Amino acid sequence: QVQLVESGGGLVQAGGSLRLSCVASGRTFRSYPMGWFRQAPGKEREFVAAIDWSGGFTEYADSVKGRFTISRDNAKNTVYLQMNSLKPEDTAVYYCNKHPRADLNWGQGTQVTVSS
After folding, report:
1. Coil, helix or strand for 94?
2. Which residues of the chain have pLDDT under 50?
3. Burial class of 55 by CB neighbour count within 10 A (0 to 12, 13 to 18, 19+)
4. What is the number of H-type helices and E-type strands within the chain?
5. Quick one: which of 26, 55, 96, 110 could link to 2 by a disulfide (CB 3.0–4.6 Å)?
């Protein structure tokens, strides 16, 4: 089973930037479309961004479009989320998983906190 490890979160002021990383074990990673998801306290986990296996196609939630960029490096089994112009409402635990099925075991996530 593929294991997912997210990192790169932290505390940042509104308007700041962070770059999240998700490292996956297993050679089959490069064949998966991958996504980033987030869960804020008291809310359901929601979709943030997705990328196809080649990196040639991406999609974003309306709330992050124009501010976040998803990318991947299949040689490193890693998917990234560059987050710019962060807002307090982006505060959440961020996770990666296959998209859209999200049927891999969830990792521990990485906390992103944006102060106003």
Report:
1. strand
2. none
3. middle
4. 0, 10
5. 26
* Per-residue pLDDT at 37: 98
Q: What is the DSSP annotation of 63-84?
A: TTTTTEEEEEEGGGTEEEEEE-
What does the DSSP assignment read for 1-19? ---EEEE--EEEETT--EE
Reduced to 3 states, what is the DSSP secondary structure of residue 29? Answer: helix
Query: What is the DSSP code (8-state) at residue 88?
Result: G
Q: What pLDDT score does 30 carry? A: 83
Report the distance separating Cα 116 and Cα 107, nearest Å. 28
Identify whether the C-beta of residue 55 lies closer than 8 Å to the C-beta of residue 112: no
User: Using CA atoms, how far apart are residues 57 and 53, in angstroms rounded to an integer?
Assistant: 8
Counting every residue written for the chain, the total comes to 116
Cβ atoms < 10 Å from Cβ of 105: 9
DSSP β-bridge partners for residue 38: 46, 94
